[in-house]
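Changelog entry

Holo records now carry the ligand SMILES as an explicit input line rather than a separate metadata file. Below, a converted record for flavin-adenine dinucleotide, shown in the new format.
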Amino acid sequence: MRPLAAHYDRVQEYPWEIKKELCDAGLMGIWVPEEFGGAGAGVLNLCIVVEELSRACGGVGVLYAVNALGSFPILVAGTDEQKQRFLPSVTSGEKLIAFGLSERDAGSDAGGMTTTAREDGDAYVIDGAKKWTTNGGAADLYTVFAVTDPNSRSRRLSALIVEKGDPGFEFGRVEDKMGIRCVPVVELNFDGCRVPKDRLLGGRPGMGFKHAMMTLDRARPGVAAQAVGLAQGALDYALAYTTRRKQFGQTLTGFQMIQQMLADMATKVEAARQLVYASARMIDAGARDITSGAAKAKLFATNVAMEVTTNAVQLFGGYGYMRDYPVEKFMRDAKITQIYEGTNQIQTLVIARNLIKKASQLDHLAEYMPLPDHENTLANRAEAKPTA
Ligand SMILES: Cc1cc2nc3c(=O)[nH]c(=O)nc-3n(C[C@H](O)[C@H](O)[C@H](O)COP(=O)(O)OP(=O)(O)OC[C@H]3O[C@@H](n4cnc5c(N)ncnc54)[C@H](O)[C@@H]3O)c2cc1C
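Structure line, unchanged by the conversion:
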């Protein structure tokens, strides 16, 4: 991948030859259980593959990981028939899959989407548009979220499996992006798109928002792993460069300030990696509460990626700012990890909400720190004390 990364970044085309290598290596769909054609390798191994791919090219990292994002809704909520029907072609690499949740006016507030899926006989009819679908155009399968009950607050959305070529389903604008340029990000347009009812995820309407959140909980460690790989890849290049580049008669690594930067970068990358692996292990172990761990991993690792890749550019000096050198691409690729699958502001909200929800478990600490009592403050007590 390293010799090809700059080329695909420049031409902004899907690297089919790399995808073929991923298939030949048996890496597609490894997170899917064996009964549906996967390797049953879970989220931890998915993360390790994404990390290693992103260490060479962040675009390839997401090109691979987005298939997990697209297939998790089927895994967590699909009927057995849907799993048997759709997952084996994803695990063989025959078909790519994408995830259509966001819309032009509904990003962080995904529940505010306006694309509708109306029941009509034996089908749902989808009308509306999705924004920024990664893998769009390249993928054959799409998990698409739409409003099935506009009058409900909690059961408003449902997910449907849409196939490339379904009548009324077209691809719109292809985005020109800052980073991850080898993977297409496109608009999906639905104009009276008829989808048979057996493609309603889980066979029951109204569960879409829950399924989207369950999916993101399982997919966010993958974005965090992409960030770790990007940070590690940039650090690798920075180390290789600073040990060879000479200024003032010595290599850059001879300067303590440079050593400090490298040590700090390496420590943060390792901390991020361990947080990502811990969150993935919790998911694989079937832990009930995985939301906060996934959000923490994404928040921390993607911030580390931004910091470390920016510092790598700094360590290359002026050369780092040039397209002739690989590190500026790492910095561009890293930025998106702080945005997609929930921005880092949204991750912060998720973490804070989970924390506060559990605060009652700490009520026993009240014994050691009574809340300030204005009637009975120390100052009031001192004032009330009779003077001698
Ligand atoms: C390259 C790329 C690929 C993508 N791939 C996919 C994909 O495959 N599938 C898919 O469904 N979507 C995808 N997305 C969409 C992505 O998930 C959204 O862009 C993201 O969730 C943010 O939504 P938004 O862009 O509408 O920003 P907005 O929601 O408008 O947010 C704008 C800013 O406001 C902040 N903000 C919003 N709400 C709050 C709040 N309550 N508190 C504090 N701050 C807040 C945000 O953090 C952000 O900084 C992709 C996006 C990009 C750019």
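Spot-checked after migration. The beta strands are 97-100, 116-120, 123-134, 141-147, 157-163, 169-174, 185-196, 246-247, 250-251. The CA atoms of residues 200 and 281 lie 30 Å apart.
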